[in-house]
Prior knowledge:
The structure holds two protein chains of two kinds. Chain A is of the alpha/beta class. Chain A has eleven helices and ten strands. Chain A has one domain: Rossmann fold, CATH 3.40.50. In chain A, helix 4 (130-140) crosses helix 5 and helix 5 (147-157) crosses helix 7. Chain B has eleven helices and no strands. Chain B is flat and about 85 Å long. By secondary structure, chain B is mainly alpha-helical.
Amino acid sequence: MARNDADLTSRPSVSVHAPGTASAGVMPSTAPVMQLRDVSVYYGSYEAVRGTSMPIQQNQVTAMIGPSGCGKSTVLRALNRMNDPIPGARVSGEVLYHGQDLYAKDVDPIQVRRRIGMVFQKPNPFPKSIYDNVAYGLRINGIKGRLDDHVEEALTQAALWDEVKDKLRKSALALSGGQQQRLCIARTIAVKPEVILMDEPCSALDPIATAKIEDLMFELTNDYTIVIVTHNMQQAARVSHYTAFFTAEVDEKQVRHGRLVEFSQTGKLFTNPADKRTEDYITGRFG
Amino acid sequence: MTVTAPPTTRAGAGGPDLTRAALSGRRRFSNHLATTAIWAAVLLAVIPLALVTYEVVIKGSGVMSLSFLTEDIPNSYRREGGGMAPAIVGTLLITGMAALMAIPLGVFGAIYLNEYGKQSPLARLIRLMADVMTGVPSIVMGVFIYISWVLLVGQQTGFAGALALACLMLPVVIRSSEEMLRLVPDELRQASMALGARKWKTTLTVVLPAAISGITSGSLLAVARAAGETAPIVIVTGIVFAPNSNLFDGFNTALPAQIFRNASQPFEAAQDRAWGAALTLIVIVLGFTIIARLIASRFAIKER
């Protein structure tokens, strides 16, 4: 069980998680790789999201849906400490990754982000060549040697290799939006994280590019665990195994907080929601 | 019926008139006025530039020759001939040394301000000081270096000139580089961070390359301005008539100082040398510009 002792402190570690070896049936597919326990996220004194508890299952796609301002992106960013640089941002509760609290004192956020990668809403390739974009993460993580092979593997996994193999030295900015987003996915999987967080990865893309990314997500669950935030309920229904529905609520002091309303298997959440608010949202009566 | 008019019908045959003539007289007039004003502004801006360049090239090329670039400065203003070699050597070395000191320091300062200090009290103070420093007259900087360095080491040197120029360049480099770093989208920093890059790595490998061409342009502007500074050079470097390539020992001189000294003489030979020095200075600054552009384009990412 190599994964359970993932060392997240700042001690140098050359071993990079290799999905091919670890996912070979060692763990049952329903084992949670991450677990949120009563997680609240604060910006200064404002509590943006209150008391969220949910698991992230291994090699599954977990979707977070809900109306704007319900805190789903905030929770997503809390999963790999991307909120850290925001002045005043703070997390209470526990975000467990293989049983380790990611917000414990001796945890190095750099080590966390090497294992839990992120794809953003707007495609954000570096203003470098296609090759250098994918190789970037490998280089900073000190992975030497056959960089070419790693780059090809990542681009192939991201279903982009055939489109770019003849122009690897060209600028990534010359690619279309959908290609740029797949490049960003390739860049993320090149460093072989265990979990990939996706923050509305298709909202800037047309339906055809969206379909490609959705197919890709399905493929990627062989090796990776995916958490996706989406505005698009159909997308959540199509790609995810588990769905978390968030909404914004006004408390007794008239302050808005994001809250997790319901978490269950996607099929159940969409066909037989337990909560009235979930039902209202997915049937279009609200939001 | 205008609605059923076939598409081949010419405009005006019932459909809206889309020609320019349909615009009201007032709109046409204001459009002409704005266009004329813009062109007039461009011409007005170009006239002094063109006249200065023309004058310097015509008058300067009269004395320009290989010997002008390689011979010593005559130690009498009255004497004909001679050259500007000491001032050319001095300008290149002093400005080069100043750039070597001010640009790295300035760029690192800008990195601190934009990537680390942000809106902290210290960063705000540094920004304020840099802005104030930009407004310090160069002659004041010359006097400052005179009392704080020349008096300390006991002699006027080329290095003292370089120090004064560096102090003049520093705030310009800091502020222009900070502006360029600010233009780098935050998404790139986040992408790098999400890949597990540490902050300094992100800054060096993502942020700085994305801003490098703007930083180069800004720094270059500072170098060009410094190369033309006269007052601090006159005050802190002394004067030489033969090239002195040692910045740390002995007097030195530079082209602007020579333009100042020679142009203020009543002798035609000196005035000719001043024109020649002016032309040389312009060519040197042009050379700096071209080199910096080449460096910047080497770093810059091709869009396609």
